[in-house]
Design goal:
heterodimer, A: alpha+beta, Thiol Ester Dehydrase, Chain A, 3 helices, about 30% strand, B: alpha+beta, six-stranded antiparallel β-sheet
Chain lengths: ~170, ~150
Amino acid sequence: MKRPGEPVQTVKLRRDAALAGLVERVPFAGFLGVCLDRRGDEVTAILPFREMLIGNPMIPALHGGVTSAFLEVTAQLDLAWTLVRDDVDAALQSGSAAPDLSGFRMPKTIDFTVDYLRPGLPRDAYARARIARSGRRYASVMVEAWQDRRDRPFAQATGHFLIRPADG
Amino acid sequence: MAAENLEERLKAFLEILPYAGALKLRLAGFEPGRAEIEMPYDAHLVGDPETGVLHGGAVSALMDTCGGAAVMSHPDTGFITATLDLRIDYMRAATPGQMLVAVAECYHVTRSVAFARATAFDDDRAHPVATAAGAFTVSLPDGQVA
């Protein structure tokens, strides 16, 4: 639905601002340097390479804790985005510049299982999540990370999250 | 290799890992098949600024490193290991401001795979913050060939 005086590009920027606002609510995501790239309804998390993320400098490879943290942050933020997306769109449709997400509570990790498939190379990494199920209280999320080739993931994970009501 | 020697080597090893340095991980306890690693509280590692609770991703790095250290400390393995998989269960939020301590035990080793489990605590030692279980690759102890 297109509104006069509300160019599509403006809506896109505001939607991206809402997404960036979610990332900012997780200080640890900033510590890792994770940012999100949205193309339509598909969100890709990006972990720009930095020396700090190296585990063993002799190999050198990303630290396993970096890999699992990147996957967990991606799963959590993708789930959060899915949960607020309708509210963001509704706010944008009604002409409001910034949807109010102050009542939104970040999903909490219940458990997280990571498979390390290959060493993480000292370069940028990407990850995408898929919400397998999102119910009233619990969500199950799958996530995969890759570097040079999308069809050669270096890690995959599945996790369960607790979705917290705004008053909970 | 003597255990004290291995402990020194592991301590030095932790110091040169850039990410372990970024999280300020420190080897606090060490015996064959068992390791203890501390991670001080840091505002950068917070998941939710409203509560100040550490993010799970920070806890998982602690668990992964501690599990790997327990595997390295086991007499039947060498000094090189990689995590095959790791499952973490988050029991409760870590109390903001408190140091986390992970204790890991390598409880079974085959020729190819080592199994380790870990528990993380804050100051309340009666109620774990998180538990983890993982499988790790095995290298042979120094000087041995397959």
